[in-house]
Design goal:
Chain lengths: 160, 920
């Protein structure tokens, strides 16, 4: 881990960026913001870890827990809600056996997230599967998509 | 300057002031919740809104800079309505449980709700609920009461320099928490608690002890380190239940964990309450303080100690007995067979009486105190060069240094509040040079860190001086006017080239050169040092080197410019001033100068000895040889604080008679023939003198437990029983008497220091005190540059003992722990001894963090937990000396500085072995 962190740090020093840039790099490298990484940078840069945590929790782009290789984001906007997005979420959570307060499968293959509105209400209900916007979703369609992803078994997309 | 009008009143303030500052200058009240004068403006609570002519809407006074001709209105029905609404919104998700809130009556939010008459709230909605996570023993965080004013965040970052907490999340979910919402893990200074305007942050130990009703508040001085912070003791039913500090004090209201939360020893059940006389012969008793012995045996001994080893007696019996034994020994072996150790924890008055007792009643100069082990080399060094051995500057001057050179001082842990001043100066633009073998916390704030090998200070300083001469940064006018012997001294510097410096100290020469040029070019530099300089066999030479560095650059005798030894104990300056020395009367007046002796003989009405007495380590030596027969120890614990514990115990056991006067049954008291219960700082009146020579008032807040008595009472009673009449109707008389024999404090009266202490010299009643010394010259004329050479420490690592051990203190514990280790909260955060060891060394020996290892020196060995840390350099280890069950001083050597007789506590050679623990 240290090597990867050193790499980020060198970049940071070169670019004279800010904490956000570091956090983005950490997120890109690990898929989330691990506590060790924050503590490591805090020590190296003499910036309190609390500052990193403050920023990491402020922006939605940062995640504090490890995320799955595949990210499925279900829209909960008004239109999607009416069209049964809650059912989609429940289907997914049930399928992945996700306990409360947990969004990622234990094998870190899938993460299920909710979003307020994607802005494509005309195709409600909407789910974003690994950055691909899929409209007029049904539980069956979702299951099929997941099967496809499970078949692939590659994690070529670990960005949020 | 800018002039503006507030509520029709004209006021002129400095440029860049805020509207709030201007209003406060006029004493116009504006409510605030997030503002603190020492912190950056925040503008978060929106209560300080005011109307400014020409501005469309109300604006926050705390963030708006003044401008000429500004017209401000601070109160109007409209503004008040807005303020009330803001308050209601703040209270809309507040628990409103003032009935049971710890801060009720001391809560700004509650007070504002009262003033604005908020009985009901128009806004009702979602509440924030948090699960409490804090298992830390000091700070209770009830985040439901938090109004997000951010004062705690700013104080932790801006004042304390820690940044343990920050805002996290956003919107309604915003909360203040440590990273990853874990338990607090910080210095526990409690600054956040002090500034919190609600009940969100309180002291854990305050709970259910009382709030505002029936509380007496007594102003006194902190009993821990030499910073001399003002404390306000909150007392209810003869119990100190809380400690706070006013903002208009030398410490600006800031305290450290010990000062704020370390008061539990005062009302501790283990306090000595009755005089005790030994019933079991000393030699049959196994000493408990020997290193390596488990605490279990120690505790079981202590819990039954009083009944097993001592019997409780009346004061009369105890005093008669002590007087009888002392008289017998004096008659048989002469007065010089008796020695006394005074206490830097006791007041000036008590120290004055103690040395007077030893000199006038017993008739010997065998009186010393713990300064021997901390700053005797400072005294020997600075007094020789300058004519006085105290801090030359005062604490508030720290803020104006442009360069601060800290050498051999872990300031943030040993003098936390002076540490804050240094951090503040650095924030204000001062350059900080830290010279320390360990990566101490202050290194984070330093521009240059010189990690020299322990014991190589002289070489480091001399190579800096070499550079200063080479770069022509000396102050020739100052050298010409105020010093002599510089030319020959300069010659002696030739060999200390930066290359040579690098070779001896291990510091890269570029660093030495940079540090030297920085210090040499500085306009108002200050040097700060403590035990890292003094506790060496060449401690006095270290001090000489520092003094010369200041002299050759002319950096002394001006405001914010000088040499500052930070004194360790709360009143070690005072105990020194009061003459608890074998060679000095009060005020550093030599005992062997005939007319000085005559002066004291006249003042005290007896014949005095002109023979220089024994220093503390010499007393131990004499006791071992059988020349010293009796000792009277007041408030000291030499068993743990002196080097080579086994030897100290042996020495004390050899004595025919040992009387110990203390507040607890210390390791030393266990060896005594008579133990006299004393009153602690909160139970008596008097004065302490802090490290910057400031004499401050100590006030009685509670009654002593049981039959414990003030030290002054005990000394006076003993003197009277030994046939010397000491009579003082009130304690200030003692101080006045001291002033008569030492004019530097003659102008100080209790009345004058009621609010704020005065710094000696203060010879007359209208003298304002002296913030910095040597303005316009040194008391003894020209300062002399004498030539000293670097010589290595006595015991350096070798093949058999390959590690260099340094000992010292840590933030939470204090000295031998007789006070701090009685406090549960402190023990929870700092429960046991540890040895800091570099990761590489740990790897080599296969030592994991937390593993018990055996550390041995030529004198003894202890088992101790390993703490793998990058603070010490490779090949160096560090042990704090507070812990009796793994006492660092089992290992340290007794080699003494030939001049000051200070032992080398900072350098000795040890070896490390991994212990195989058998499971029992």
């Amino acid at each position: 881990m240290e090597e990867a962190l050193e790499g980020i740090l060198t970049n940071y020093r070169k670019n004279e960026g800010n904490i956000i840039t570091i956090l983005q790099d950490i997120e890109n490298t690990f898929g989330y913001i691990p506590e060790e990484a924050v503590n490591w940078f805090s020590k190296k840069l003499d910036i309190p870890a609390s500052r990193f945590y403050s920023i990491a929790t402020f922006y939605a782009q940062f995640h504090l827990k490890p995320r799955g290789k595949n990210i499925i984001t279900v829209c909960r906007g008004t239109a999607c809600h009416v069209k049964g997005s809650e059912r989609l979420i429940n289907t997914l959570r049930k399928k992945f056996n996700l306990p409360d307060e947990e969004d990622t499968t234990y094998n870190r293959e899938f993460t299920v997230e909710k979003v307020a509105c994607v802005g494509t209400c005309s195709m409600a209900p909407v789910a974003i599967i690994n950055k691909k916007v899929c409209g007029k979703m049904t539980a069956d369609k979702l299951t099929r998509e997941i099967k496809k992803l499970e078949g692939k078994k590659t994690g070529d997309n670990n960005e949020g | 300057m800018v002039t503006l009008t507030i509520d029709g009143k004209k006021v002129t303030v400095r440029k860049l002031s805020t509207v709030l500052d201007a209003a406060r200058k006029l004493d116009i009240p504006i409510p605030t919740l997030c503002h603190h004068s020492e912190l950056s403006p925040y503008g978060g609570c929106r209560l300080c809104i005011v109307e400014i002519k020409g501005m469309a809407r109300p604006i926050t006074a705390c963030t708006t800079p003044v401008s000429d001709g500004m017209e401000v209105i601070t109160t109007s029905p409209y503004i008040e309505k807005l303020r009330k609404t803001t308050l209601e919104l703040l209270l809309s998700d507040h628990p409103n449980d003032c009935m049971v809130c710890e801060r009720a009556g001391d809560c700004t939010l509650q007070e504002l709700a009262y003033f604005y008459g908020i009985r009901e709230n128009r806004f009702e909605g979602e509440r924030r609920f948090y699960t409490r996570k804090d298992n830390n023993p000091f700070i209770e965080r009830e985040m439901e009461k938090c109004i997000l004013c951010g004062q705690c965040v700013r104080i932790c970052d801006e004042i304390q320099g820690v940044g343990a907490i920050d805002f996290a999340h956003r919107g309604f979910k915003t909360r203040i928490c440590p990273p990853y919402e874990k338990d607090l893990n910080c210095e526990f200074c409690g600054q956040c608690v002090a500034v919190c305007p609600t009940g969100a942050l309180t002291g854990k130990m305050w709970a259910h002890k009382g709030r505002q009703k029936d509380i007496k508040e007594i102003e006194t001085v902190c009993p821990y380190c030499g910073c001399g912070c003002s404390l306000t003791l909150h007392v209810r039913r003869n119990e100190v239940i809380r400690v706070s500090s006013r903002e208009d004090t030398i410490n600006e209201g800031w305290l450290c964990a010990k000062g704020r939360f370390g008061y539990g020893f005062i009302n501790h059940p283990d306090r000595l309450t009755k005089p005790l006389i030994r019933i079991v012969p000393k030699n049959s008793q196994k000493s408990s303080a020997r290193g390596g012995r488990s605490q279990k045996t120690l505790n079981s001994q202590l819990s039954t100690l009083n009944s097993q080893l001592f019997r409780e007696v009346s004061w009369d019996e105890a005093l008669v007995y002590v007087a009888k034994r002392l008289r017998e020994i004096k008659d048989r072996y002469g007065p010089d067979s008796i020695g006394g150790l005074s206490s830097a924890k006791c007041t000036n008055e008590e120290n004055y009486l103690f040395q007077k007792f030893m000199r006038a009643v017993i008739g010997t100069n065998n009186v010393d105190h713990c300064v021997r082990y901390c700053h005797s080399s400072t005294l020997a060094g600075l007094a020789t060069v300058f004519g006085s051995g105290a801090m030359t500057n005062s604490i508030p001057e720290i803020g104006n240094h442009d360069v601060i050179f800290v050498i051999g001082s872990n300031t943030t842990e040993t003098h936390p509040i002076i540490g804050l001043r240094i951090k503040k100066a650095v924030r204000g633009g001062a350059e900080l040079i830290v010279a320390d073998p360990r990566r101490i916390d202050l290194v984070r704030f330093a521009g240059i860190w010189l990690q020299h090998r322990p014991g190589t200070d002289v070489a480091l300083l001399k190579s800096m001086m070499h550079v200063i001469v080479k770069e022509d940064l000396t102050d020739k006018k100052f050298i010409e006017e105020w010093t002599e012997g510089f030319e020959s001294f300069k010659e002696g510097l030739n060999e200390y080239t930066p290359d040579m410096g690098e070779k001896i100290t291990g510091v890269p020469k570029e660093y030495i050169i940079r540090a030297a040029i920085l210090y040499g070019n500085a306009v108002r530099p200050g040097i700060y040092y403590t035990m890292g300089i003094t506790q060496h066999t060449h401690g006095t030479e270290n001090v000489f080197a520092i003094a010369k560095l200041a002299l050759m650059t002319g950096n002394i005798g001006r405001e914010s410019t000088g040499v500052n030894p930070l004194r360790g104990q709360n009143n070690v300056q005072g105990a020194s001033d009061m003459g608890c020395f074998p060679d000095f009367y009060p005020g550093y007046q030599k005992v062997n100068i005939p007319n000085i002796k005559q002066k004291f003989e006249k003042a005290w009405g007896v014949r005095l000895s002109d023979k220089i007495g024994l220093t503390a380590p010499e007393m131990a030596e004499a006791a071992l040889k059988g020349n010293l027969k009796a000792m009277y120890i007041m408030g000291e614990n030499p068993v743990l604080s002196d080097p080579d514990i086994n030897r100290t115990i042996e020495a004390l056991k050899r004595l025919d008679f040992l009387a110990v006067q203390d507040i607890f049954m210390t390791e030393t008291a266990e060896l005594a023939d008579v133990v006299l219960p004393a009153a602690c700082f909160a139970e008596k009146d008097g004065t302490f003198t802090n490290t910057e020579r400031r004499v401050q008032r100590v006030r009685k807040a509670v009654e002593p437990p049981g039959e414990a008595k003030e030290d002054s009472w005990i000394i006076i009673e003993l003197a009277n029983r030994l046939g010397y009449k000491m009579k003082h109707a009130f304690i200030e008389e003692v101080f006045q008497e001291a002033g008569k024999v030492w004019p530097a404090i003659e102008g100080i009266t209790y009345g004058r220091i009621a609010k704020m202490g005065l710094q000696w010299p203060c010879p007359t009643l209208d003298h304002p005190g002296t913030p910095y010394l040597f303005k316009g010259g040194f008391p003894r004329g020209k300062a002399v540059f004498s030539t000293t050479r670097y010589r290595p420490s006595e015991e350096l690592p070798d093949n058999e003992y390959p590690f260099l051990l340094s000992t010292g203190r840590q933030l939470f514990q204090y000295h031998t722990g007789s006070m701090t280790r009685k406090i549960d909260a402190i023990n929870k955060i700092s429960p046991e001894a540890y040895i800091e060891i570099h990761p590489d060394d740990a790897k080599q020996f296969g030592i994991n963090d937390g593993k018990i290892i055996k550390v041995s020196s030529r004198r003894g060995s202890i088992n101790i937990k390993a703490l793998i840390s990058d603070r010490p350099a490779k090949g160096m280890v560090f042990i704090p000396f507070h812990f009796k069950e793994a006492a660092a001083n089992v290992l340290t050597g007794t080699a003494l500085d030939p001049i000051a007789k200070i032992p080398e506590l900072k350098v000795c050679a040890v070896k490390i072995e991994v212990v195989v623990l058998t499971v029992s």
